[in-house]
Amino acid sequence: MRVPLLLPLFTLLLGATLPLAAGEFAVLKGEVEVARKELVTMVLYRAKRDEAQQKLVKDTANAVSAHLAKLKAPAGRSAQFKELKETWEAFKLTRETELVPAILAGEKEKAEKIAAGIQKVRLEKCYALMLELDK
Taking CA 25 as the corner, what is the angle to CA 20 and CA 55, rounded to the nearest 5 degrees? Predict the structure, then answer.
């Protein structure tokens, strides 16, 4: 079984969380975590790389984008809000055009490099910005 070999990637993807704060950006953070959970499921379980799981991966990321589009920058924090939106958009684009295709193609090393590299940096930045925006 290949699941133990993917455990470091799973740990890396799940390890990038921060404590949940109260407020509208905390709700958004929860949605990001659901989107990440669906992707991690796809990574860990080959049987979960079917069309239904691919749809869940896409739909959960789209839900984050839709929620983010409805939010407004808190007073005095428009720069951080803009950075959050831009970072999420870049994260989602890489996820859809590079990471998911690598997972589906069985390109484990490529997927790990993307997930542990730029995607980890972006996800951590999103979490930090959401925490800051919720203060």
Answer: 90
Residue 15 pLDDT = 45
Residue with tokens 């869940």: 56
Q: How far is CA 81 from CA 6, 41, 76, 122, 125, in A?
A: 34, 29, 10, 14, 12
Give me the residue spans of the domains in the chain. Answer: 3-133
Residue 36's alpha-carbon distances to 41, 64, 83, 98, in angstroms, are 9, 11, 20, 15
Return the HEC string of the chain. CCHHHHHHHHHHHHCCCCCCCCCHHHHHHHHHHHHHHHHHHHHHCHHHCCHHHHHHHHHHHHHHHHHHHHCCCCCCCHHHHHHHHHHHHHHHHHHHHHHHHHHHCCCHHHHHHHHHHHHHHHHHHHHHHHHHHCC
Mean pLDDT of 75-97: 97
pLDDT band at residue 7, thresholds of 50, 70 and 90? Answer: very low
